[in-house]
Design brief:
This protein is mainly α. The protein is built from 20 helices and nine strands. Helix content is 55%, strand content 6%. Helix 9 runs antiparallel to helix 14 (284-306) and helix 9 (198-228) crosses helix 18 (460-472). The relative contact order is 0.12.
C-alpha cells in the first residue's frame, strides 16, 4: 500500500491503512522545497552570537548554557541517547509505524529545520517496514513524548532495537540490511525528532480506530438485544428526539429505526403488558448518541494534532524567525483521550446491563437462565456476562482522567505536564475492553433470538447482524469452550466485519 505525503492533510483512511499493514511512502514534489527553506533558516542562525534554544544551547534547565560550535553535532546525538530512557512493554509495531508516519508528516510542513536526508531516512524506515521498538512508559507529555520519540529516533543513528519486516533485531544490523549508514544528526535535528506529540497521537489514533467500531457495533448489538428481549421501538421515534435535538441521539435513534425496520419481534410488543423497557434499552439514543458525539469530538482533535507542528523551537521561513513556544504540550490529546475513555466506559457499562437483562430471567423477559437451553445442566452465557462485568469494572478505574494530574520534571522547567501518553494508553485499553463487551452482547443477543418462536422475523438490520454472528459462531445448544468464540466475535467487531454486513442492508451506521 502506498501513501503520498506532501505536508498537506493526511487522510484518516491512510491512518487506518498504516495501522493494519505496512505502507510504502512517497513524498510529494513540493514538500522538499519547504524542508530546504526551513533548513536554510537554521543554517543562517548557526553563526549567530545570540543564543538560539536547542541549536547552540543546551536543553531544558540548560537552555542558558552555550554549546561550542565544534560540539553541536554531538549535542544532538547526546540528546537522543540520553532521552531514550523508556521502560515497560513496547508499543505495538503498528503504533510505531504510525509514530514514524506522523513525525514524517510534521517535518514535511517545513517548520522544523531538518535536512532532507532526515526525511529520507524516515521514509526509508516506513517503506522497508523497519519499526523502532518504543517502550510504552516514560512520557509525561510535556515537551511532547521525549522518551518515546527518542526511542523512535535512536535506530536512525544505529542505536536501539527495531522490527524489520516482523523480525526483531538491533538497529545497526537493520540499517545494514537496508543499505543505510547510521545517520549523523546536524544542529536542531535531534530536537526536531524527539520533541512533539506524535507517539501519543499514534496511540490515540489506534484507540479511535477501535472506538469507531465499538460505537457502530454497540448500536447493532443494542438492536439485537431489543429483538431478543421483545423490546419496544417507541423510544426511538423521531418526534421524541426532535424536541431534544442532540445530534448524536438523533442519529442513534434513526439508526435503530433502520436496524429494526420490519421486525415481527418488536411489533409483538404492542400487545404485551410491559409499559416501558429498562433504561439500558429505551435510553440507547441518549447514551449511545452522547458517546457518538464524544468520539467525533476526540477524533477531530486528534486529526488536527496529526496535522500539526509540535516540536520546538519552530522555524518560520517566510520571516526567517525561530520561535520557542509550547506546541509540544500534550493537553489537547490528553483531554480528548480522557473524554473518549469516559465515553467508552459508559458504552460498555450499558452493554453489560443489556447482557444482564438477557441472561437473568428475573431482570429480563426470557424464561431461561443464562440463555441456556437446559439451565442447571448448562450455564450458557452466565460467565460470559461475568467477564463483561469484570471489564466494565476495569474500565471504570481506567476512566479516571489522566489530564488532571501533573508532576514537575526537568528541575521544575517543565512545571506543568499533560500526561497525554498515559491518557492515550488508558483510552486504548478501554477501547479494547469495550470491543470485548460488545462482542459478548452480540453473542448473547443472537442466542436470545435463536430462542424465539420460529414464526418471529427479525428486522432488516438485525437479521443481517444475526447472520453475521452465526456465520462465525453457531447457536449455543450445550456448554462449550466460550473464550475462542468471544475472541472470534471481538475480532469481527474490531475489523468492522459485522458492521459492513449490516451496512450492505441498511446503509451507513456511523
Amino acid at each position: 500500500m502506498a501513501i503520498t505525503l506532501n505536508g498537506g492533510p493526511l487522510a484518516w483512511e491512510s491512518v487506518l491503512q498504516a495501522l493494519s499493514r505496512p505502507v510504502r511512502v512517497r513524498i510529494g514534489p513540493t514538500a522538499y522545497g519547504r524542508v530546504r527553506r526551513a533548513r536554510a533558516v537554521i543554517e543562517r542562525h548557526l553563526g549567530d552570537s545570540a543564543p538560539v534554544y536547542g541549536i547552540n544551547t543546551g536543553f531544558g534547565i540548560f537552555a542558558r548554557t552555550r554549546i561550542a560550535r565544534k560540539d553541536l553535532f554531538l549535542l544532538q546525538r547526546n540528546l537522543v541517547l540520553s532521552h531514550a530512557a523508556g521502560v515497560g512493554e513496547p508499543l505495538a509495531p503498528a503504533i510505531s509505524r504510525l509514530t514514524l508516519l506522523f513525525k514524517l508528516q510534521a517535518l514535511l510542513k517545513g517548520h522544523s529545520g531538518v535536512r532532507p536526508i532526515v526525511v529520507d531516512y524516515l521514509r526509508a524506515f516506513l517503506s522497508a517496514d523497519c519499526l523502532p521498538l518504543i517502550p510504552a512508559q516514560g512520557s509525561v507529555g510535556a515537551s511532547g513524548d521525549l522518551a518515546p520519540l527518542a526511542h523512535m529516533t535512536a535506530p536512525l543513528l544505529g542505536e536501539g532495537t527495531v522490527w524489520l519486516r516482523g523480525r526483531r533485531m538491533g538497529a545497526g544490523k537493520a540499517l545494514s540490511q537496508m543499505g543505510l549508514s547510521p545517520l549523523m544528526l546536524h544542529p536542531k535535528e535531534g530536537l526536531a525528532l524527539v520533541n512533539g506529540t506524535q507517539a501519543m497521537t499514534a496511540v490515540a489514533a489506534a484507540a479511535l480506530a477501535l472506538a469507531h467500531e465499538s460505537v457502530a457495533h454497540a448500536e447493532i448489538a443494542g438492536a439485537l438485544t431489543i429483538e431478543g428481549l421483545f423490546g419496544s421501538v417507541a423510544p426511538f421515534q423521531a418526534p421524541l428526539h426532535m424536541v431534544r435535538p442532540h445530534p448524536g441521539a438523533v442519529a442513534s435513534a434513526r439508526i435503530l429505526r433502520r436496524l429494526l425496520a420490519g421486525s415481527h419481534v418488536v411489533a409483538s410488543h404492542k400487545t404485551c403488558p410491559r409499559v416501558q423497557d429498562p433504561y439500558a434499552l429505551r435510553c440507547i439514543p441518549a447514551v449511545h448518541g452522547t458517546v457518538r458525539e464524544a468520539y467525533l469530538a476526540a477524533r477531530a482533535t486528534v486529526t488536527r494534532e496529526m496535522e500539526s507542528v509540535t516540536d520546538n523551537p519552530i522555524v518560520f521561513p517566510a520571516t526567517g524567525r525561530i520561535l520557542s513556544g509550547g506546541n509540544f504540550h500534550g493537553a489537547p490529546v490528553a483531554f480528548a483521550m480522557d473524554q473518549l475513555a469516559i465515553a467508552l466506559t459508559t458504552l460498555g457499562s450499558m452493554a453489560e446491563r443489556r447482557v444482564e437483562q438477557l441472561t437473568n430471567p428475573k431482570a429480563g423477559e426470557l424464561p431461561v437462565q443464562g440463555l441456556a437451553r437446559k439451565p442447571g445442566l448448562h450455564s450458557g452465557y452466565m460467565v460470559a456476562h461475568v467477564t463483561a462485568a469484570s471489564l466494565v469494572s476495569e474500565n471504570k478505574g481506567l476512566a479516571h482522567p489522566a489530564s488532571i494530574d501533573t508532576i514537575p520534571t526537568w528541575a521544575g522547567q517543565e512545571d506543568h505536564v499533560s500526561m497525554g501518553m498515559w491518557a492515550a494508553r488508558k483510552a486504548l485499553t478501554v477501547a479494547e475492553n469495550t470491543a470485548n463487551i460488545i462482542g459478548i452482547e452480540l453473542l448473547a443477543g443472537a442466542q436470545a433470538c435463536d430462542l424465539h418462536p420460529v414464526s418471529y422475523r427479525l428486522g432488516r438490520g438485525t437479521r443481517a447482524a444475526f447472520r453475521a454472528v452465526r456465520i462465525r459462531v453457531p447457536m449455543l445448544r450445550s456448554d462449550r469452550f466460550l473464550a475462542t468464540e468471544i475472541a472470534v466475535i471481538r475480532d469481527a467487531v474490531t475489523a468492522g466485519a459485522i458492521r459492513l454486513a449490516v451496512e450492505r442492508v441498511v446503509g451507513p451506521i456511523i
